Amino acid sequence: PQGPKKGLWRMTTRVIGSAALATTALTGWQYYRLRTEYRPLTPPKGAMSGIEGPSESDCKDECQILFIGDSLVIGIGCPDRAEGPVFARHISRVAAQALRRRVKWKVLGVDGGDVQTIRQSLLEDVRKAAANGQPKVTAVVIMCGLNDYKRLIQEGRLPSAFKEDLRLLIRNVKEIVGQEARVVLPALPVDRAPLFQPLFPMNVALYKVAKVWDHQKRLLSGEEQSVEFVAEPEHYDSNDWAIDGIHPSEKGYTKWADHIIKKVLPHLVKVEPHVND
Questions:
Q1: Which of 103, 120, 210, 273 could bridge 61 with an S-S bond, Cβ 3.0-4.6 Å?
Q2: Is 91 exposed, middle or buried (0-12, 13-18, 19+ CB in 10 A)?
Q3: Residue (of 61, 69, 50) closest to 109 by Cα position
């Protein structure tokens, strides 16, 4: 009796092990195919800073929002717009209209950058944005994680490393712009991107990875002062994605911005306006 049971157990473990190995190999092959065949979109041309809101004589005061991150913050997936990326513009415009306040916005992005690269490349630009005479930075939106997923495969960097890298970026930014500035960390809906939907089992693996990485942002929102995690919107449709199948379209960025502004707006109201000195 014990012999047949042991034999059945061995056969079961072999089947499970073989299936896991085959799944891992297929996922790796799908990732390799994407890396070699994917053709990245070029960044849109246009301004990376601007001011939204009423004329200076009609408004109460002025504040500033910084948008820091990777290709998503730059607006890859959108057509060229002289006035700049729709995501930053839309959030700033809605805020300006709601508050009757001039909102200055600035996009600081690194196409293809992970959190380490963003921190190493952009802190000097953050200092310039928060320099003397500039409007007070009241909110900072950090878009990151998409390129950090790759580091798991390429370098074995775990979610805990991403979390500490992001914590360091947040603290460095707050040291420059002020501790009272609100940092907003949006979740990335990359697991819903059309490019990955037909790629089973890679799409399942990506879904799990995305949730784990976004959970690190959620944890930081509870551990760091004035940091807020924003979950992804519930619904997307085919028109919300660009032709590369991974970046949002202009419509998708606008939908995302409408979702996030609900979290940003209250903190623009609370902060007393003044210029950096």
A1: 273
A2: buried
A3: 69
Residues 91-102 pLDDT 10s: 999 998 888 889
The contacts of residue 109 (CB under 8 Å, 6+ apart) are 48, 67, 68, 69, 70, 71, 73, 74, 122
Distances from the Cα of 109 to the Cα of 120, 238, 275, angstroms: 12, 26, 24
Give the Cα separation of 260 and 141 in Å (integer).
Answer: 9
pTM across the whole model: 0.83
Cβ atoms of residues 70 and 143 within 8 Å: yes
pLDDT band at 38 (very low <50, low <70, confident <90, very high): low
Tokens coding 235: 């619904």
Interval 151-203: pLDDT, tens: 887 888 899 999 999 999 999 999 999 999 999 999 998 778 888 777 777 77
* CA dist., res. 184 & res. 174, Å (int): 12
| Cα 230 to chain centroid, rounded | 10
In sequence order, the 6+-apart residues with CB closer than 8 A to the CB of 134 are 64, 104, 275, 276
State whether residue 44 is helix, strand or coil.
coil
Q: What are phi and psi of 261, to 5 degrees?
A: -60, -30
To which H or E segment does residue 250 belong? helix 250-270
> How far lies 136's CA from each of 61, 97, 155, 256, in Å?
10, 18, 38, 25
With the C-alpha atoms ordered 57, 58, 61, 63, is the resulting torsion angle positive or negative? negative
Residues 6+ apart with CB under 8 A from 215: 159
From residue 134, how far is each of 137, 141, 234 by CA, in Å? Answer: 8, 18, 36
